[in-house]
Structures are given as C-alpha cells and as structure tokens.
TrEMBL record, chain A:
Keyword Zinc assigned: no
GO MF annotation list: oxidoreductase activity
Domain Aldehyde dehydrogenase: 40-271
Classification via Pfam families: Aldedh
Species this protein is from: Umezawaea tangerina
Alphabetic keyword roster: Oxidoreductase
SUPFAM superfamilies given in the database record: ALDH-like (SSF53720)
Cited PANTHER family: ALDEHYDE DEHYDROGENASE-RELATED
Recorded superkingdom: Bacteria
InterPro entries: Ald_DH/histidinol_DH, Ald_DH_N, Aldehyde_DH_dom
Protein known as: Aldehyde dehydrogenase (NAD+)
From TrEMBL, chain B:
PANTHER family named in the record: ALDEHYDE DEHYDROGENASE-RELATED (PTHR11699)
UniProt keyword list: Oxidoreductase
Gene3D superfamilies linked: Aldehyde Dehydrogenase, Chain A, domain 1 (3.40.605.10), Aldehyde Dehydrogenase, Chain A, domain 2 (3.40.309.10)
Domain (Aldehyde dehydrogenase): residue spans on this chain: 31-477
Name of the protein described by the UniProt record: Aldehyde dehydrogenase (NAD+)
Keyword Oxidoreductase: yes
Single GO molecular function: oxidoreductase activity, acting on the aldehyde or oxo group of donors, NAD or NADP as acceptor
C-alpha cells in the first residue's frame, strides 16, 4: 500500500482499488458483528489497512461454523482431503507475488527473504496435504491381543480446534499451525497474528476458492487476548493451540480449557518454522480409536 | 426378458483418444525411433490396426539403462524429496486432466469396457501417483529407518490387462523413493504407457528419469539381464516370474513379482445372496476376467448352491458383451487371439473332464475377439479349470459343507494372491480371512484397489507388495 501513497499525487498514475480486509467464517467474509476495526501498519509503522476486530460473538459464530463443517470434512475420504489440500497449494502458488509483498510489508523482511518464506509455506502446505492418507498407516495399528479377537486402532480427528496463530511468522507460521489441524480431518477456528493479520486474510481468500468446504477453516483477526479466553472456555471446542498466546494469559487459557478437558498444545511461538516439522502437530489433534471384533466360525 | 433390457448403443467417440498413426519409444526425455522391428498394435474389439509402434532392440535397452543411470546419479537420486514430490504430483494432475483421452485409448488398445477404463483404470492410476507423491518427502516415517535410500535403476516389466494402471503401480513408488525407471509395456498394449511418457515430458521430469521401451518378451529379458539394473519388478505370468527369479539368482538384484492367481470366492449359507451374486459377477467378469486376482473359483456352501447358481446364471445372462467403447458394455473384448485360444482350450478341457458348462446366450460381435461369459458347475479340485489360471470370463463352481472344508479347498492351490468371503457373520469373516493363504482378502466385496492398501501375493503368486507403506520396501535399499 506504500506505493499507493506515492502515486496519489500523480494524476497520470492509476489509483489502485484498496481492499477491505474482513473475517472469514463459514466460507463467507463478514465484517465483525461488533463493527469494530483496528489499524494495521507495516514494520515501520506506516498504515496498511484496517482489519476487523473480531469479538466474542464472532468467535462463537466461527466455532458454530467449524462444528457444522466437521461431519463432512472428517467424513470425507483421506484421498479427497488430500486432493482438496493440494488444490489449496496450487492456488497459493498462483498468488506467490502477492503473498511475498504482504509478508514483506508485515514482517519487514526484504523481497528475497519474503519470497523464500512464501515458497517454504507453500511446500509446507504440500507436505501436510500428503499426510491425509498416510497418517493412519503410520500411527494406526492392528493389535495382537491375546484372545480370539480382531483388534485395531486408528487415529481420528478430535473435532474443532481453536488455534492461536504465531504472532511473528505471518504466513509460514500460520500455515504451519493450520495445515496439520485440517489435514487429519479436524476443523479450525484461527485467531491470526494480531499485528500482522493481512497475509492470513489473503490466505482465507485462497481457501475460499480452493474446494475447501466453508467452515473447515475460520479466521478471526483482532486482539488475541480478547478473543482467546472465549475460545478456551467454549464448550464446543475440543482442542486449543497456544502457539500465539500472549505470555501473560497462557495459564488462564489452560485453566479455562480444563473446563471441557480440551487437548492443549502448549508450544510457544518461538519455534523455527523454516525447518521441516515432525508429525507432532498432526498427533496433537488426533484421538486413537480401538475397535474389537470377535473372530471365529 | 430381453425386451426389458434393450439399450440403444452409447459409444464413446474414438476421436477422443487422439490416436496417432505411429508411436515412438521414450528414452532420455525424447521420443525416438527404436531399432527393433516395429509392431502393429490392434484393437481387439475389431481386429483393426490402431497404430504402428517402434520397438526397442537390446542395444536400445542399454541406451535407456545408461540414461536412467545418469539421471539417477546426477539428478533424481540426490534431489530433495520435497522437489521430487512436486514432479510426481504434476504427473497425477496431468493424468486427471487427460483422463478421458486415456480411458478411450485404453479401451481401444486393450479391449476393456470404457466404463471400467473410465471409472477404475485411469482414476486409480492418477491416485497412485498422487499418493506416492506424498511419500517422496516422508520416507523417514515409512518404517524403514531414519533415511532409507533408493536402489538406483529399476527395470519394470508389466502386463497387458491394466496397461496404464500397472505402469502407475510400478513408476509411482519407484520415483517417490528416488529411483529411475526403464519400463517395458506389454507387446499388445503399448499405447497408454507412451501417452504417459508424453505426460512425463509435460511434467518436465529431468531426462532419463523415466524411459519407456515397447517390445516383446525378449526386450523384457534383455532388461532383466542388464548388468546395470539394480532392481526388477515384474507383473505377469507365474511361468515367466519363475524364469526371472532363476535368471536373477546370484546377481544380488532386488526382485518383486506379482504373478498369477486362482482365487477362491467363498459363499457361506448366511451370505446376503443378491449382494454376493453381484460380487461374484464382478469378481470374475470384471475386465473379461483378465485379472490376476480374479475370483475364478466359486466355493458355494452346499445348502444354498442350487439357489445361488440359478440366480447367478440369470444375472450373468444379462451381461452385455461387445464394443468396448459402448458405455453400456459390461464385458469387452479378449485382449488377443492368443489369449482367446488359451481360454477356448481350457474351457474345452473343462468339458472333457466332465464339468457342466453353462454359457450365456448373449450375442457376440462378428469381428473381434470375444468370449461369452461361462460358468462351470460340478467342478472337482483335480480338474484343470480348478487349478490353472484361465485369465478369461470363465467361472469354476465347487461346493463345500463346512467352513473348514471351504478353507481347505480355498487354500488348495500353489497360488495365493486373493480370496473372497461372503457371510453376514463378522466373526466368521475375520476367522476365514485369517485362515486364507492369500495376500488380499475381500469380505462382502471384491476387486477393490487403492494406493493406500498393499497388494501382492503369497506363494507362487509372487512376493513383494504394491501400495501402502509396505509397497515402498520394493524400491528401497533396506
């Protein structure tokens, strides 16, 4: 947007159309029901855009959308989920330059570094897309029980996962925490980086146009400390990722999560998202289901 | 009854196949003229020549293996899995995009019904590449140690019954694990493999990573014997499989074999009869019975045998045999005159040995290689039609009294590729599945294939698996 300002005075230059950045809930792009917004600046403090300041009600709407999408998404074949997620990577690739510009503005990194971050983010998405139909073969088992029974255990998605996205890494970090949630069939309510939310909103536009059913990923921009407690205590949320949680409220969030025995991922945001991850984030949102059946004529 | 089942013909247009008058072999990233005698591939549905295909000579095999070795040493073997994955995903997508063209071409060259090439062969081929693409950067999770290494150059020889699908089963895991490939398609069905070569070119794979050499058995043998090939994967007859195993003895080359079968489909008296009839029909008449895992021996519990056979014959008599390109066709053309002769010879033996033959009275086209669906009852275990793989639309029916007898009869074969179990009782399914000496057991279904599910045989049906985590082992130095 900085180049927009430069061109403002020159009458011969075309004035770009500025985008309104909104929330992403249930496959739609609403403004916050609270009608609040907050200014987003680049790393040097220059104004970039206003982002919607999500509220408690927006968070509840997002959880409800995520719950509604869970049956269909978790019930889809792993192959189908893999195809959809790979499609997301294809569309991400098409917006490579846009993401690089936004990451550069948000994180204050040079163009080359920003491009590298975006490329890693796309490859990361592809990596998780490939896990949809493999995680069961890696984590599941047939159990040689001592009796005439056939017993097997299989990983299943835990449900609706609330994700507090990393505050620093606006796209690579975001993708690294969202992709593992949905790859295994969970649905997500994501609170984006508070001060660097614009790449996340552009990501929501990619998700909306990539065959991903509405509600599988919901993105809320706003004050993390304001929205997070409502998600941590929400009875219809099954798991909570604290990666981007402000240090001061982490304990409170964990306590609130205990109210409905949520699975809590207590990773801190400092992790190096540039490194290839392990499958810890996939495992974090999986239940193990064991099935028994008698065996005999 | 026949009045009820009149369909207007609904043929796919042959133009969709983009058939070219001639096809060349694919070596080192380029389509080149082979120095072997060109072959003419025919449409088994009409006996017309489809195209001329250049074939490889033993010296072309050497050129291709050298190209594969270079590509392995310089590029593919050392490329990061993340990057290999993206190439393989591209192949999957290009197959999906050209799926209709590939389906029509497959039916033209092979004779299988268009509804099968369209709904099974081509989508499953794409799925195989898609699935294995995802493994390329996840091999440390496959259970073969922290950094499993590829073998090098893989020589692959595939049959004519699922030309494109078998190419996918072979190439996808080889590439995902970091090997390079020299593949020989079957003599009678080279076309879709060469379109796959075009796709590999469009996907911009580095030259030499995949090489495709049409030719007859001697070219397969030259590939198997080549000193610089590290691994051989063969799908085909048990006879040739044994030959290859002997040939490779002492060389240290890794070998996987997917060979013949004589699968038993067991129907217990508590089975859902109508569902079982459908499954038995699918099990033996899918792809004209040209399926190594076909349910070619039906074992019926005596108490339901008569009723079941009656229903089976009624159902089989409604199968439509004819033009492979017609969307209403259930059973297409036998792939070659040679195969037709073999089926005729074995069915004659069945009659001579005293089995009771029933053949559908469906009309057959005047031209082309066709064989009407046939069911033999009163078959005993000693008869050739109970022991030998017919590889055609011929079902041999035996009976049993007790579950133990069913298991004993099912396992009474040197093969061991697949088996079927039909019963409403879950505990019996699991009991029988455990007793089967077979690599794939289907219960209340048959002929299901998926890249996530390992496929392969026990005993003389071969060794090694294709698909799933287990399938990766075939192409890893472990």
């Amino acid at each position: 947007m900085s180049e927009n300002r430069i061109s403002l005075g020159k009458t011969e230059t075309r004035i770009p159309v500025a985008k309104t950045y909104k929330l992403y809930i249930g496959g739609k792009f609403p403004r916050s029901e609270s009608a609040r917004s907050y200014p987003v600046t680049d790393s040097k403090g220059a104004f970039l855009a206003n982002a919607a300041q999500g509220s408690r009600k927006d968070a509840r709407d997002a959880v409800s959308a995520a719950r509604k999408a869970f049956a269909g998404w978790s019930g889809a074949t792993a192959y189908n989920r893999g195809q959809v997620l790979y499609r997301v990577a294809e569309v991400l690739e098409g917006r490579r330059e846009q993401f690089a510009a936004e990451v550069s503005a948000a994180e204050g990194v040079g163009a080359k570094k920003a491009q590298a971050l975006v490329d890693t983010a796309i490859d990361r998405w592809v990596w998780y897309a490939g896990w949809t139909d493999k995680i069961a073969a890696v984590l599941g088992s047939s159990n040689p029980v001592a009796g005439p029974y056939f017993s097997f255990s299989t990983p299943e998605p835990t449900g609706v996962v609330a994700v507090l996205a990393p505050q620093q890494s606006s796209l690579l970090g975001l993708i690294s925490v969202v992709a593992p949630v949905i790859a295994s069939g969970n649905t997500a309510v994501v609170v984006t980086s508070q001060d660097r939310p614009l790449p996340a909103i552009t990501l929501s536009e990619v998700l909306a146009t990539s065959d991903l059913p509405g509600g599988v990923v919901n993105l809320l921009t706003g004050r993390t400390a304001e929205i997070a407690p409502w998600l941590a205590s929400h009875a219809d949320v099954n798991a909570l990722d604290l990666t981007g949680a402000p240090e001061a409220i982490r304990g409170d969030l964990e306590r609130a999560a205990a109210g409905t025995v949520k699975r809590v991922l207590r990773v801190r945001g400092g992790e190096d998202f540039g490194r290839e991850p392990d499958i810890g984030r996939l495992r974090a949102y999986l239940e193990t289901k064991t099935v028994w059946h008698p065996m005999g004529v | 009854m026949s009045q009820l089942w009149e369909y207007a013909p609904a043929p796919e247009s042959r133009d969709i196949a983009n058939l070219k008058p001639s096809y060349k072999m694919f070596v080192d990233g380029k389509f080149v003229e082979g120095s072997g005698e060109p072959l003419k591939t025919i449409n088994p549905g009409t006996e017309e020549v489809l195209a001329e295909v250049s074939t490889a000579s033993p010296s072309d095999v050497d050129t291709a293996v050298k190209a594969a070795r270079r590509a392995y040493d310089r590029v593919w073997g050392r490329m990061a899995g993340t990057e290999r994955a993206k190439y393989i995903y591209r192949i999957a997508r290009l197959i999906q995009e050209r799926s209709r063209e590939l389906a029509v071409l497959e039916s033209l060259d092979n004779g299988k019904p268009i509804k099968e090439s369209r709904d099974v062969d081509v989508p499953t081929a794409a799925a195989h590449f898609f699935y294995h693409a995802g493994w390329a950067d996840k091999l440390p999770y496959a259970g073969y140690g922290p950094d499993p290494r590829p073998l090098g150059v893989a020589g692959q020889v595939i049959p004519w019954n699922f030309p494109l699908l078998m190419a996918a089963w072979k190439i996808a895991p080889a590439l995902a694990t970091g090997n390079t490939v020299v593949l020989k398609p079957a003599e009678t069905t080279p076309l879709t493999a060469l379109v796959l070569a075009e796709i590999i070119q469009q996907a911009d794979l580095p030259p030499g990573v995949v090489n495709i050499l049409p030719g007859a058995g001697d070219i397969g043998a030259a590939l198997v014997e080549h000193a610089d090939v590290d691994k051989i994967a063969f799908t085909g007859s048990t006879e040739v499989g044994k030959l290859i195993q002997r040939q490779l003895a002492g060389t240290g080359k890794k070998l996987t074999l997917e060979l013949g079968g004589k699968a038993a489909n067991i129907v217990f008296d508590d089975a859902p009869i109508d569902q079982a009839v459908e499954g038995i029909v699918n099990g033996i008449f899918f792809n004209q019975g040209h399926v190594c895992c076909a349910g070619s021996r039906l074992l019926l519990q005596e108490s339901i045998a008569e009723e079941f056979l009656e229903k089976l014959r009624v159902r089989v008599s409604t199968l439509r045999v004819g033009d492979p390109l017609d969307k209403n066709t259930d059973v297409g053309a036998i792939n070659s005159r040679e195969q037709l002769t073999r089926i005729q010879e074995l069915t004659a033996a069945g009659e001579a040995e005293g089995a009771e033959r029933w053949t559908s009275s469906c009309p057959l086209p005047d031209k082309g290689f066709y064989f009407a669906p046939t069911v033999f009852s009163g078959v005993s275990q000693a008869m050739r039609i109970a022991r030998e793989e017919i590889f055609g639309p011929v079902l041999s029916v035996l009976t049993f009294r007790t579950p133990d007898e069913a298991v004993a009869k099912a396992n009474n074969t040197p093969y061991g590729l697949s088996a079927g179990i039909w019963t409403d009782k879950g505990s019996r399914i699991l009991w029988a599945a455990q007793k089967m000496r077979a690599g794939v057991v289907w219960a209340n279904t048959f002929n299901r294939f998926d890249p996530t599910a390992p496929f392969g045989g026990y005993q003389e049906s071969g060794f090694g698996r294709e698909g799933g985590r287990a399938g990766l082992e075939a192409y890893l130095d472990v």
